[in-house]
């Protein structure tokens, strides 16, 4: 009997084992795709939070100085009338036409804000100037996320 | 060498070696002696399994590829939204006065897709959205004789909708709401120039 005969061919078991090992090796590498996707989703939410915080900061310049006080966490979707996010827009000529962030009036934006439970709050310290911390919070993949913007407002 | 082996004749030794080799081969690779390479059935099953795995992985890879394209696109859209907001805010925050839209008579906010304001040089500037091209354009109306001049380059590209909302009793806070392919960007600009 020659050596060539002894080593010829691969058994089915060997092929299956090779495939299983290959699969085990490749699957974790494919997870890289998912990671990059989640990173972009994170940056999307962060970008939104930066815009919201900036919007609040600009709005604080219009409200009376004494009205700048602590504000508890407030949801943007279906939130109360705060003059910043509710109402958000008004294509009409009276307050009755104003659009609030609700499922009926602004469905896409409402769905996004509801999905991530986006909220804002104000933490005000001091008197003149007031040290205002604007906090934007949201929930992303079960984790509480936070963006904070600190501004100083002086009596005008 | 054992005592029994030392008393074997040459014929007996050859026979012993033959049977030893035969038994060893049977023990280690009985199949290898009987068969050379694949059988047709093995080949069929292996090809079938390979096709199945390639099919599953290929489909998964294709869907991931599409997902990656979408993610890249979303990234670009986010950048467009940020860039457009920055370009608008850059000039608007130093503006003197918003001409259109104006807050309603009952002091409620008012929205439009066009914003007209007087910039810090005194020129009247209009920002407006072109839905067909998904662009934000800027146009300068000279403060005196002359024709309005539209900028060659748009302020923002790939923007599906843009709403300017004037808020506050002094008509100096402009709220921005930009959308592009399901993404939203909210911001506001306060005119600081008195």
TrEMBL record, chain B:
Q: Where are the bilayer-spanning segments?
A: 40-62
Q: Which UniProt keywords apply?
A: Membrane, Transmembrane, Transmembrane helix
> What is the designated name of this protein?
Prepilin-type N-terminal cleavage/methylation domain-containing protein
At the top level, the lineage of the source is: Bacteria
A Pfam match is N_methyl
* Protein's organism: Candidatus Ozemobacter sibiricus
* Keyword Membrane applies: yes
């Amino acid at each position: 009997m020659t050596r060539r005969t002894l080593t010829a061919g691969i058994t089915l078991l060997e092929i299956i084992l090779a495939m299983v090992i290959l699969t085990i090796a490749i699957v974790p590498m494919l997870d890289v795709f998912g990671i990059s996707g989640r990173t972009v989703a994170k940056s999307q939410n962060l970008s939104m939070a930066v815009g919201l915080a900036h919007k609040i900061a600009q709005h604080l310049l219009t409200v009376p100085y004494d009205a700048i006080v602590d504000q508890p966490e407030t949801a943007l979707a279906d939130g109360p009338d705060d003059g910043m996010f509710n109402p958000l827009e008004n294509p009409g000529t009276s307050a009755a036409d104003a659009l609030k962030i609700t499922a009926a009036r602004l469905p896409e934006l409402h769905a996004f804000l509801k999905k991530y439970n986006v909220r804002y709050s104000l933490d005000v310290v001091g008197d003149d100037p007031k040290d205002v911390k604007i906090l934007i919070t949201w929930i992303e993949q079960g984790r509480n996320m936070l963006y904070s913007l600190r501004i100083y407002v002086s009596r005008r | 060498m054992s005592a029994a082996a030392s008393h074997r004749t040459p014929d007996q030794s050859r026979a012993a070696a033959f049977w030893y080799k035969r038994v060893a081969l049977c023990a280690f690779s009985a199949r290898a002696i009987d068969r050379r390479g694949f059988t047709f059935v093995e080949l069929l099953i292996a090809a079938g399994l390979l096709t199945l795995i390639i099919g599953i992985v290929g489909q998964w890879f294709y869907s991931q590829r599409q997902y990656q394209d979408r993610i890249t696109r979303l990234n670009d859209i986010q950048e467009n939204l940020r860039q457009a907001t920055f370009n608008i805010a850059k000039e608007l925050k130093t503006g003197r006065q918003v001409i259109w839209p104006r807050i309603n008579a009952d002091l409620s906010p008012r929205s439009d897709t066009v914003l007209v304001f007087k910039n810090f040089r005194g020129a009247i500037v209009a920002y407006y959205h072109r839905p067909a091209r998904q662009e934000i354009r800027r146009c300068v109306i000279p403060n005196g004789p002359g024709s309005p001049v539209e900028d060659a380059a748009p302020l923002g590209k790939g923007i599906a909708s843009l709403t300017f909302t004037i808020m506050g009793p002094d008509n100096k806070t402009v709220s921005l709401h930009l959308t592009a392919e399901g993404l939203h960007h909210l911001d506001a600009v306060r005119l600081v120039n008195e």
